Amino acid sequence: MAYTIDRYPCGDSPRLGAMTLYPEPESVPRARRWFRKFIAPYDPACSVDDCVLMISELVTNAIRYGKSDEPWLVRVEWYREGASLRVDVHNPGFPANVRLRHPGADDAHGRGLLLVDSLADSWRSGPSCFGGTVVSFVVADAWPA
């Protein structure tokens, strides 16, 4: 199995769901597909397509830049915080390595966080509660207040 899905969070939790993925390229479309499927029952008013694009970029970065001497996984969690949606992507890399880049027109990589920065209302990176790094984005007004 290449992933696990937590689609039944406890009733008093703001977490709507989570998935754990192997650090392999096939996990990127899997993350998009499963997020779309499991966010749908919550009927967000925000653009699910934008959220899927941002998740795709962050999972790609997690796979590309995550590092560990042990076998490791990428974890994606999504939360409802009032009217906002927050998505966290965890990997075993170092928080200091996450930075917004400004690639040249001919550069093949380096635009993922620029996309997140332009689509999300906010984003941040820092130490993950699982060890390593978490990169999060927030979409405000994802649900009516």
What does this structure look like?
The chain is an alpha+beta fold and 145 residues long. It has a single domain, classed as Heat Shock Protein 90 (2-Layer Sandwich). Helix content is 27%, strand content 28%. It has a six-stranded antiparallel β-sheet, covered by helices on one side. Helix 1 runs antiparallel to helix 2 and helix 2 packs antiparallel against helix 3 (112-119).
Q: What's the arrangement of secondary structure elements?
A:
Layout: E1 3-6, E2 15-21, H1 27-39, H2 48-65, E3 74-81, E4 84-91, H3 112-119, E5 122-127, E6 133-139
Helix pairs in contact: 1-2, 2-3
GO molecular function: protein serine/threonine kinase activity
Protein name: Histidine kinase/HSP90-like ATPase domain-containing protein
Keywords: Kinase, Serine/threonine-protein kinase, Transferase
In short:
Residues 23-136 form the Histidine kinase/HSP90-like ATPase domain. By secondary structure, the chain is an alpha+beta fold. 27% of the residues lie in helices and 28% in strands.
